[in-house]
């Protein structure tokens, strides 16, 4: 591993920035001692940052002398650059506030080098493994986990992404975590960490009895036939492999296994034999697999199971008897088994349930779910599709205060109502961060979003009757004469597309302190945005739209337009053949821009095709029909076909230039119209889909790669 070193002056400047002038000036001897500390960091930017943060606020000379002694003694035992820096970084590890935080830090090393780790995944692992106790109060435990993540970020042991959804572990810090987890290199088989190493089988382990955590995710393991004896194994991550067969003997001797992750093994069609022997299992992830049935008779033996993830299991026929898993705290059924009245009745029997994600299209069933305050308060992710609610609309209970994501697709819903039978103070969806609506007939406005103060992502498209996002008249009725709440203060992305009747987002300029992007296409009656000269508040807000629309936008104040970055796109394809090399280069650049814009859409489309294919299989299975020849192939086949067809000519012909641009443009327009982002959640292009919740927490979204 290459370590880039800083010069003495650069290292000192970085250290001063991290430790703060207040600390350095707290005693006349501290600056000289601080320079010795910087020397011990050996020019490593990471070590300088980490140690600087660790020493911030330490105003006693004795504390600085202790730090120098600790750094000197530990580093003296090693010779190489890396071996010297790891003990230096260990000082920051030793400074962590308690053993639980240290275990959480070590856990982050189970993921591949450079991976953006979803915060909500870390939270779930830590709580369900019991590192952070959530038996009495899961919500409080989750808050504590997010606080630990922020603490590790402040300590420079994790790096936050710009959207706040994921964290990554610097390579050298990851080495530190693995070094510490292996008892400072003495017990290297304590942590077996081999993600994304193209393994075709489970690696050989000299002493399975020493393994406490193993990560083999993102490999190419198809079958597992070994029968290891693993009395200490607590965590086993096998997600994103090609697994289709696991021998019954594999789980025979894992009495202390707590976390088992089998997500995204598409070939996995049945629950592996032997799982019922995992008497300590508390976390089981089967999401994005092709599992067809859930042997609840076997799962009932898992008395401690508290987290079951069945999202995107399109082949799953039924889950009758799920109430027998009496200790479940988390049940995820998004894009899986449709919610029906029998399932609602079973959910009511799960007395410990705290987190629920569901999907379906029966308006009556939704009303029954919302009428149960406890189930409503558990629901974090709701997905309506093909919902025929008509004139009555749908209601969201005021007790759904933990709702994080709402998706509505291909539905007939006249109105989204808020149950205001309770006092208004309860109508606060403070955790709702993402709303996506597509192809919804009858809906005229989204005024209820006034009650979502932390909304970060709003995507509305192909809903022809929507006239306003926030209606002034309805807002006044909601508030009963009280001051209207200011909406969209946390909004980061606003996408509006193909809304024929939309004429207003809000009736006056708003403050958008977090807004980064507005994308508006196919909204012919929207000529004014709720933007004033101070709306962006210093943020670099980018507005995307058709060139003609951008040019015709109306602004209340002169000079407001200059406060934003406007990016227009022609609404008609190029028809003229380029006359010179300059025009040709411009066309090439435009094609590249369109290809870049379409890349993420194509990835989402592939996932949607996969989801539709699973739904077709499920419907045919329910109707006892044989598969038809016209079904969409699995995602892997789609991907291989498209990769094999991809070409990049060096010099396009006249027809390729003109027709290529036209085809790319039309394809972009169609794909934008048909792709509904929230059918799935995942992959590298979905890092922008998460947002910070109120100060105490962030929100969850699972994803598929």
From TrEMBL:
Task: List where this protein forms a coiled coil.
Answer: 577-611
Tell me where in this chain the Disease resistance R13L4/SHOC-2-like LRR domain is found.
Answer: 218-470
Disease resistance protein winged helix domain boundaries: 110-177
Q: Which Pfam families match?
A: LRR_14 (PF23598), WHD_DRP (PF23559)
The answer to whether the entry has keyword Nucleotide-binding is yes
Alphabetically sorted, this entry's keywords are: Coiled coil, Leucine-rich repeat, Nucleotide-binding, Plant defense, Repeat
Output the Gene3D superfamilies linked to this UniProt entry.
Helical domain of apoptotic protease-activating factors, Ribonuclease Inhibitor, Winged helix-like DNA-binding domain superfamily/Winged helix DNA-binding domain
- Protein's recorded name: NB-ARC domain-containing protein
Specify the taxonomic lineage. Answer: Eukaryota, Viridiplantae, Streptophyta, Embryophyta, Tracheophyta
Q: Source gene?
A: A09p025970.1_BraROA
